[in-house]
Amino acid sequence: QVQLVESGGGSVQAGGSLKLSCAASGRIFNGCGMGWYRQAPGTGRELVSYISGAGTIRYADSVKGRFTISRDNVKNTLALQMNSLKTEDTAVYHCVVDCGSQYWGQGTQVTVSS
User: Which of 54, 34, 53 has the alpha carbon at shortest distance from 95?
Assistant: First the structure.
């Protein structure tokens, strides 16, 4: 079983920065993929960024150049540095681990005001 706990969300003005963190416990292997999804009110879940077990990184087009994902395989943590935030980045952000089965954290709210 895998447990994920996100932190670092909050409220910020447009142009500001936040860093999200995810602490994973349980059976996490280096080969597992890890990523961040987000869901804004009234919309579906959107992949924000993802690191595969092989270390391949991808970003949603909407966040390229502004967000940076990183992972620490020793500490089993995942981070998302978010810069130049926009109002459209407002959403609940979920940490996700994919080890064959997918595990989701409860999410952390990010609110960006104009």
Answer: 34
The values of phi and psi at residue 64, to 5°, are -55, 135
pLDDT digits (tens, 9 = 90+) for 23-55: 998 877 778 999 999 999 899 999 999 999 899
pLDDT confidence of residue 2: 87
Q: How far is CA 23 from the centre of its chain?
A: 11
For 23, residues 6+ apart whose C-beta sits below 8 A from its C-beta are 4, 5, 7, 76, 77
- Write down the H helix ranges in 4-106: none
* Residues of the chain under the 50 pLDDT cut: none
DSSP state of 65: T
Tracing tokens 């926009």 back to the chain, one arrives at: 86
In this structure, what token pair is assigned to residue 69?
Answer: 């994902």
Tell me how long the chain is.
Answer: 114
15-35: b or e for each residue (b if 16 or more CB lie within 10 Å)?
Answer: eeebebebebeeebeeebbbb
